[in-house]
């Protein structure tokens, strides 16, 4: 008789390939497993509801999504870009640097790579392609690459998902992402400089220094959002979930009261878009919770740990294998599925090898984000290609140098854990 677990996997893959969302596919596969094993199928619903209702941290996800959507519909992105242009736009390839810096700042607000690419990215691509200063494919490539920083620098929706499956502190995970996010921004800026000189990109029109104070004042309310969020979290004033609510409320107040750039109709549309995005993530989480129950029943994590123990891998060998595996999976599986389904399977092995789970979480999230720019799945590739109306192959060609730079950053993040953990330790983490 065919193994029920194998049949459930086959059903999940078949449904996913047929176009059904991976979350619904996992719910169907898990239900089939329960039926074949003779269990009450209502266990799937019970597991799903318990997982959703017992996890207070999940509330952060819809709130961060709402905050990002409000910032995109308002004029925050325009004012932040003007500030970034004044800051770094005067160098050769300046708008490429503006792209990097704006992603670093915007990532401290949205926690989403897609929000970064769709909101800030759409505007900066228009600036870069205006008057033919930069090719559309290069503008798309660097925008996709910089958008991967969004979920690394806190706040971060993927970090919340990892905290859900690993039982680690969201606050410490947020802190651990700060230095790696800045490193990713640095290597992208260096690569942009190299390419700008090689291709002789123009020196863009710079904002006079005399206008810098006025530009800073205009952007100051938006620039304060990351300060309020991170200061509140690490100052013990609010939890990450409460910080997400503050982010959404603050973005709304700035956009409506201070900048007066969001109408009632736009706000209503923003709520609808946020609800749709939340529902998409929610279905994925629900599917992962039910399928994780199946994985636990089958003792898959311990079986994999026993299997890998045969190879007598050191923790560095294990981390190298994880990078190779997750980068490969990122080419075909969406980031949320990797974090919610694949990562938990390897957590027991990581613990057995003495790998810090906060460090492991950052490595996993960075891998998942790089999967967003690796073909054939690469969601960010499709987004920027659609914005610029460029063939995907042309965007990928210009993206390759940035992928190489990000791989170098990933290697450093993986094999120098103290670089990742020094900030959490300063904040009281004892791992």
Automatic annotation (TrEMBL):
Sorted UniProt keywords: Cell inner membrane, Cell membrane, Membrane, Transmembrane, Transmembrane helix, Transport
Transmembrane segments annotated in the record for this chain: 7-36, 56-77, 98-125, 137-165, 172-195, 215-237, 244-262, 274-295, 316-347, 359-387, 399-423
One Pfam short name: DctM
Membrane topology, record value: Multi-pass membrane protein
Subcellular location(s) of the protein: Cell inner membrane
Entries under InterPro entries matching the protein: DctM, TRAP_DctM
Gene Ontology molecular function: any one: transmembrane transporter activity
GO CC term (a single one): plasma membrane
Predominant localisation class: membrane
Residue span, TRAP C4-dicarboxylate transport system permease DctM subunit domain: 9-418
PANTHER family: SIALIC ACID TRAP TRANSPORTER PERMEASE PROTEIN SIAT (PTHR33362:SF3), SIALIC ACID TRAP TRANSPORTER PERMEASE PROTEIN SIAT-RELATED (PTHR33362)
Job of this protein: Part of the tripartite ATP-independent periplasmic (TRAP) transport system.
Family to which the UniProt record says this protein belongs: Belongs to the TRAP transporter large permease family.
Subunit and partners: The complex comprises the extracytoplasmic solute receptor protein and the two transmembrane proteins.
Name of this protein: TRAP transporter large permease protein
Species of provenance: Roseibium aggregatum
Lineage: Bacteria, Pseudomonadati, Pseudomonadota, Alphaproteobacteria, Hyphomicrobiales
